[in-house]
Here is the input.
Amino acid sequence: MVTLRIDGLDVRAEEWWTILETARFYGLEIPTFCYREGLSPWGGCRLCIVEIGEGTNSRMVTSCTYPVTEGLIVRTNSKRGIEARKVLVELLLASCPSSKTIQDLASRFGVQKVRFKVEDEPCVYCGLCVRICAEQMGAKAIGFVNRGGDLKITTPFDRKSEECLRCGACMYVCPACQLRCQGTEAPGVVCGSCLCPQPTCLDSYPDLMCYMGAAGDCGTCVTEKPEQAK
Here is the structure.
């Protein structure tokens, strides 16, 4: 067992656990997108980033792939991390605004606009379909081919695969296949109908830390800086 600190809490974890696994074991929520329990960690979307270390030595890492170590200090909801996640959600929205999964993430993080060129792609390259096909279904019928702008997921040589089980697991886990409530003819890039209140905590503290519920969801726990409080 190793001892580490997450959001000011001293916790113990198995040596082979990742930061994400440890946080979830203790009920601390870290948002994910390309991660799914039962599949190998990918770390591609980077939405699960957390800040480790202190001061000038701190850095951002993907919690789904980073192993715990003795004395590790982790901040799951630092201001730096929250802002980074918002940018990542914007990029996902620009890539596939028709996804309900991504629209829900935008509402959760208060993303109301997209500053990037909207591509409206049919795939966000999270790799979930590739991993579930290989690791859960044992078929390995699809995979990544090419690089850069030519990257895509397809069968070998773009031909009908004899290995495909026609099970539909790839569609089941695909976030791009989960269409937003407004359908394909949505009036705008961002829905925002399920928007969560913008938390005020980060205006006064460097982290979101609320042990009465989901961190920062209420947006009313802090209204003034500690030194200004009466």
Observations:
- Helices lie at 19-25, 79-95, 100-108, 128-136, 169-173.
- The first strand starts at residue 2 and ends at 6.
- Residues 211-215, 222-226 have pLDDT under 50 and may be disordered.
- The CA atoms of residues 4 and 72 lie 5 Å apart.
